Amino acid sequence: MLVKTYCAAVNGLEVTTVTVEASMKRGVLFHLTGLPDNAVKESRDRIAAAVQNIGMRYPVADITVNMAPADLRKEGSSYDLPLAIAIMAADEKVLTDHLHEYMLVGELGLDGRLQPVRGALPIAIRARAEKFKGLIVPRQNIREAAVVNNIAVYGMESLLDVINFLNGTEHFEPTVIDTRREFYEHQCHFELDFADVRGQDSVKRALEVAAAGGHNLIMIGPPGSGKSMLAKRLPSILPPLSLAESLETTQIHSIAGKLGRDVSLISQRPFRSPHHTISQVALVGGGSNPQPGEISLAHNGVLFLDELPEFNKSTLEVLRQPLEDRRITISRAKYTLEYPCSFMFVASMNPCPCGYYGDPTHHCVCTPGQIQRYMNKISGPLLDRIDIHCEIQAVPFAQLSQMKPGEPSAVIRERVIAARKIQEERFKPFKGIHSNAMMTERMLHEFAEPDAASLDMLRMAMERLKLSARAYSRILKVARTIADLAGSEKVESMHIAEAIGYRNLDRGDWAERGI
After folding, report:
1. Once rounded to an integer, what is the mean pLDDT over residues 79-107?
2. CB 484 within 8 A of CB 419
3. Which residues are within 8 A (CB) of 473 and not within 5 positions of it... i.e. 6 or more apart?
4. Radius of gyration of the chain (CA)
């Protein structure tokens, strides 16, 4: 008897429907074809034990199972459930009347219970696109899969539940989640708030400008000056995620297995802060079992690299192309994957190995050569992709104990959202451009052209401060954002002046003068 069940293979963000064909005849052999990896090959033993432990008899026969398309590699344990149902249906233990209406996904434990799998959300989207009536997933995956509307999603505890459901001996209701209500309820609840930060008004202003224009930012300052504390509060002033952005971000985290059991949609922009020992593969993605890297997990959010010079230089260099293209293509001998990675890059660093170069309250013990080597760990091409360079000093205790709480994140966020709305209207005719940081050179001439007075100021600054040529377009982009925050249609000299102040590492005399 020939039986077909349906499941899906996840390759990057692309999901392919897989047809599991099971045929049975007299004999004792088991054949599995269709490029299965070791985890899929081991499914036979898990299925046999699970069937026996739910009180049923595993068929003794010559079983041939094919997974089509046969030229697509099948990886992972999510194929256990469709394989088990196909085998039991071929043995006439499961009715085949409605098998074609459902897509199945799930890993089997030896006791017959269904274990959670990765990628339930993109699989649910594919099942809806293929016009399946329903999707059957492990109960732990039900919240992320049920986000998708117009398809019935069933969360099952065990293989026996699935068999009883398909045979019509037990009734299950599909899970329905009010995703919009949950999504909007959790959008503005942040544990960290800028109201907790005392002092550092200039740095908070730089972070506000960066958030308003989607600019990359680096903070330079001594230990204990609050660089990490400020960076962790950046998501609280970013514009809220749209439903489309949330769905795309949630898919990536679903594929990586990073969604919590109680999470249906990610409602806040992600903040990823990997350790400086991270490898290139962990940062960009890939590996023997391909997974999204940190830059893709930060999609639509913030990637924060603390102590930037401590990262391996070759690891930092792989950021250059993703920062420019906002997509990462991973090509290997056996596969090619593409993940989105549109994120704000935020970094922090000390000005020297000991951390106190230029600090008026501490003596620096580093030699000029050590300082130069330390700064050279960050290449010019990478620095070229960072729009805002922000210097930061530690707040003295006498001032810290007397200062009032800072401006709350909610107030700053309102200004950021207003500036982003101006940019959305401005870039409506341009596909894929939605913030000032994404502007091309042609757009700069159209939307950020300085007047004569501003141009003279910019020319003078570049000559006196020894600014490099790459700073020119960055200054104009940041000035355009400052103008948007001020509600100004034109870029004026005051906006250019503030933007020039955010290019400190481009100054030819920076290393000599200190912070």
Report:
1. 95
2. yes
3. 441, 444
4. 28
Q: Is the pLDDT of residue 509 over 80?
A: no
Range in 82-96, 119-133, 155-169, 355-369 the model is least confident about: 355-369
Separation CA 269–CA 261 (nearest Å): 19
Sign, Cα dihedral of 396, 399, 402, 406? negative
Work out the burial of residue 263: count CB atoms within 10 Å of its CB; fewer than 13 is exposed, 13-18 middle, 19 or more buried.
middle
CA distance 433 to 119: 28
d(C-alpha 459, C-alpha 444), whole Å: 17
Structure tokens at 504: 């400190």
Q: Quote the DSSP letter at residue 334.
A: S
Contact (Cβ atoms closer than 8 angstroms) between residue 190 and residue 269: no
**Rounded Cα–Cα distance for residues 57 and 47 (Å):** 11
405: left (phi over 0), alpha (psi -120 to 50) or beta: beta
Structure tokens, 312: 């391996």
Tens-place pLDDT, residues 352-401: 898 888 777 788 898 888 888 888 888 888 888 899 999 888 777 666 66
Cα–Cα distance, 478 to 201 (Å, whole number) = 18
Distance between CA atoms of residues 66 and 40, nearest Å: 12
Tokens 């899906």 locate to 8
**Global pTM exceeds 0.85:** yes
